[in-house]
Amino acid sequence: GENVEQHPSTLSVQEGDSAVIKCTYSDSASNYFPWYKQELGKRPQLIIDIRSNVGEKKDQRIAVTLNKTAKHFSLHITETQPEDSAVYFCAAINSGNTPLVFGKGTRLSVIA
Amino acid sequence: NAGVTQTPKFHILKTGQSMTLQCAQDMNHGYLSWYRQDPGMGLRRIHYSVAAGITDKGEVPDGYNVSRSNTEDFPLRLESAAPSQTSVYFCASNDRTYNEQFFGPGTRLTVL
User: Fold this and answer.
1) Predicted local confidence at residue A97, as pLDDT
2) Residue B43 and residue A95: Cβ atoms within 8 Å?
3) Which listed residue, of A31, A76, A112, B91, carries a Cα 20 to 30 Å from A98's Cα?
4) Pairing mode, strands A106-111 and A62-67
5) Is B50 near chain A, with CB under 8 Å?
6) Coil, helix or strand for B25?
7) Do B99 and A89 touch (CB under 8 A)?
């Protein structure tokens, strides 16, 4: 089955700097790659996703890139703000009767 | 739409006691999953269901039972609680064709 590795487990950046979180997956048939943000004490919520027919997707300050050959995808946050501080989870799925597989999460701290 | 609801929000159990965590969704989603979240361990799937009457084990199913008698509800049963089951439990639903998972607010369970 699918296995998703996520790095780093913790990341601290200065406000205004960029943050990058990387994930690798094992199943070459996986075709959907979402990113979830979980603020302290809250539920995880989808912030951006990408499908395998696209190499990059942007939404304001966040972007996700996908390299299917290397089987890795990354989350990029530019101009970080204190409210970006949270735990971020990547996930992968081969659409069908299989569930999403999550990485173990990255705790991002943005220092003002 | 209320989305995904979970009850209770908090609960304290004694070792050996039983309880049922409730999960309900009103989005007509086919897929429902139960996760537990422990510090540093990310989101680990306990059980999932792709449709009413169909359930399957996730990564950490031992000590937990589920049933799915209809589309809306997916209760998680702890028959004999153990301190190792102290965790935050999330229920999540998604539609098969659009894979975003919607999480419930979570249940914080403590087993003494």
Assistant:
1) 62
2) no
3) A76
4) unpaired
5) yes
6) strand
7) no
Q: Cβ of B105 under 8 Å from any chain A Cβ?
A: yes
A17 residue type, one letter: D
Nearest to A49 among B40, B41, B100 (CB): B100
Q: Which of A32, A99, A102 sits opposite B42 (nearest CB)?
A: A102
B27-B28-B31 Cα angle (round to 5): 100
Query: Per the structure block, which two tokens stand in for B40?
Result: 């540093």
3-state DSSP call for residue B74?
coil
For residue range A43-88, list pLDDT tens digits in order: 999 999 998 888 999 999 999 999 999 999 999 999 999 999 999 9
| Counts for chain B of helices (H) and strands (E), in that order | 0, 11
